[in-house]
Amino acid sequence: MENGDWTHMMMDTVTLNVGGQLYTTSLSTLQRYPDSMLGAMFRGDFPTTRDAQGNYFIDRDGPLFRYILNFLRTSKLTLPCDFKETELLRKEADFYQIEPLIQCLGDTKPLYPLDTFEQVVELSSTRKLSKYSNPVAVIITQLTVTTKVHALLEGISNNFTRWNKHMMDTRDFQVSFTFGPCDYHQEVSLRVHLVEYISKQGFTIRNTRVHHMSERANENTVEHHWTFCRVAQKVED
Fold first, then answer.
1. Are strands 116-130 and 204-216 parallel, antiparallel or unpaired?
2. pTM here?
3. How confident is the model at residue 188 (pLDDT cuts 50, 70, 90)?
4. C-alpha to C-alpha distance for 210 and 61, rounded to whole angstroms
C-alpha cells in the first residue's frame, strides 16, 4: 500500500463513545449504508453530540455496538454460538436503521396471545430530484406518518410544532410534512426525530424498503418506507 493511502486512512478515522465504550473506525465504514441513522449522522444531516474528550457520543448499548460495527465493516452478521441477546441487538439495529442487519436478524412476525393485537405505523419519505442539476437538487420532499393510533398522531401534532412552517397537514389517520425546494437536510433531521419518537412509544421497525421511479423527463422520485409495530391489549366493548 502506498504511503498516501495510509495517510488517507489515518485522516479518515472516527472515535465513537457508545454508552461509555470507545470504538475507532473509518468514516467510510460508518457511511456504508447511507440511509441508516449513522449514514445520515456522519453526512452532517443532523446535529451530533460529543463527550468531554471530543469523541462523538451515542447514548446506546456500548457492548452490543461491536456487532453493529462489525456488520458495517463486513456486511456479515457474526455472533458467538452462545449469544443470548438477539432481541436486544435487533432493537439496536432498529435504532440505527440498518435494514440489511434487521433482515439478517430474522425480524419475523411474532405470535401474539389471543387477547392482544398489533398496532402499525407507516412512515414514508417521498423525494423528487432534478435529473439535470449538478449537484442533484431536491425539488420537493414529503414525510407522511399513517396510523390508526390516534394518540400517536396527536402526539406528533403537539410535539413537532417547530416543523409547522413546512406545511404540516393533519388528517384522519395521517400527518404529513412538505419541504422544498432544497430542504433535504431538514427533512432528514425530522425523519430521525420521528423514528426516535415513534420508537419511544413502544414501536419497533418491522421492515424498510426503498423504491426508485421516474415520473417526468426531468425528475426522479425516490420513496423510503418504514413499518413500525407494537403489541396492544384488546379492550372489550
1. unpaired
2. 0.51
3. confident
4. 28
